[in-house]
Amino acid sequence: MILVAAGGILVAVLGLTYWIFMSPYSQLFGDFPYKDLTSEKVVALTFDDGPNEPFTSEIADFLHTRAVRATFFQVGSCVDRNPEVTVRLAREGHLIATHSYSHRFRHCLSWSTQREDIEKGRQTLTTLLGRRPALFRPPWLFRHPPMLRTLRAQGLEPISGEFAHVLEVFQPRPERIARRALAKARPGAILIFHDGFDARTGPRGQTVEALKLVVDHLLRDGYSFATIDELLGMPGYHSLGESEFD
Predict the structure, then answer these.
(1) CA distance 198 to 221
(2) What mean pLDDT do residues 203-218 have?
(3) N or C: which end of the chain has fewer CB within 10 A?
């Protein structure tokens, strides 16, 4: 009985810890938007961990055929490998936001290291695009009060969202990913897909096919699509003259 009770307490503690620091929905440390409060049938599609070829370009090709613009939270080291993909996305009207430089969990264990990694990722995009991204999605959605305070003090807004499918990393069948994503596609929803895998390359063909199912279904249902800055009414970029991390 004692072991059972201890196990139950451990599970509860782990669950609470996850909810506080990594849940898409927790607002304990401040505003971390995962949706917009609107009755309009509009959804924001977001993509994390890229660019990752050929899958990011396949996503861009499809979105172009549907005149849909999305938000790409990109990893700086991946941008360094595929700068032409990021430039193409920006040129076609997609919003480019930052998702750190390395996407390594060990960098989350020290705020000074994490802060350097965040700024390096942002600077990579700034140098390439000539504009400073104003939006940041933490890897694994992991956040804590010092991070959020410093981000906002420097004009970098943290953004959450809802995972299209929690097992997308394992690439289940497109129909499964799409079914789960559509269940979450309500007015004002921010859907998180992955065109990459951490900071590494990896297959995302199932995600590409699932995206096609989701977009076409929502278009038939009367939905439109917005980038995060449009959905939430906040800047997507800052001018180069605005302050940086000290």
Answers:
(1) 33
(2) 98
(3) N
pLDDT digits (tens, 9 = 90+) for 98-109: 999 998 876 666
Of 140, 145, 138, 146, residue with least CA distance to 118: 138
Quote the CA–CA distance of 201 and 146 in Å, as a whole number: 31
Q: What is the CATH number of the domain that holds 203?
A: 3.20.20.370
Task: Grade residue 11 by pLDDT with cuts at 50, 70 and 90.
Answer: low
By DSSP bridging, strand 135-136 and strand 157-158 are parallel
Which domain does 161 fall in, by range?
33-234
Alpha-helical regions (H) of 130-204: 145-153, 174-184
Q: Which residue, 75, 56, 54, is CA-closest to 64?
A: 56
Rounded distance between C-alpha atoms, residue 30 and residue 92, angstroms: 33
Flag whether 140 is in a domain: yes
Q: Which residues pair with 163 in a beta bridge?
A: 192
Mean pLDDT of the chain: 92
ω into 174 cis (within 30 of 0): no
Q: Tell me the three state secondary structure of residue 109.
A: coil
**Which residue in the block uniquely carries the two structure tokens 């699932």?**
210
pLDDT for residue 43 is more than 80: yes
Q: How many domains does the chain have?
A: 1
Residue 15: C-alpha distances to residues 20, 73, 130 (Å): 9, 26, 42
Prediction pTM value: 0.93
DSSP H or E stretch at residue 129: helix 111-129
Q: Are strands 135-136 and 132-133 parallel, antiparallel or unpaired?
A: unpaired
| Residues contacting 153, CB < 8 A, separation 6+ | none
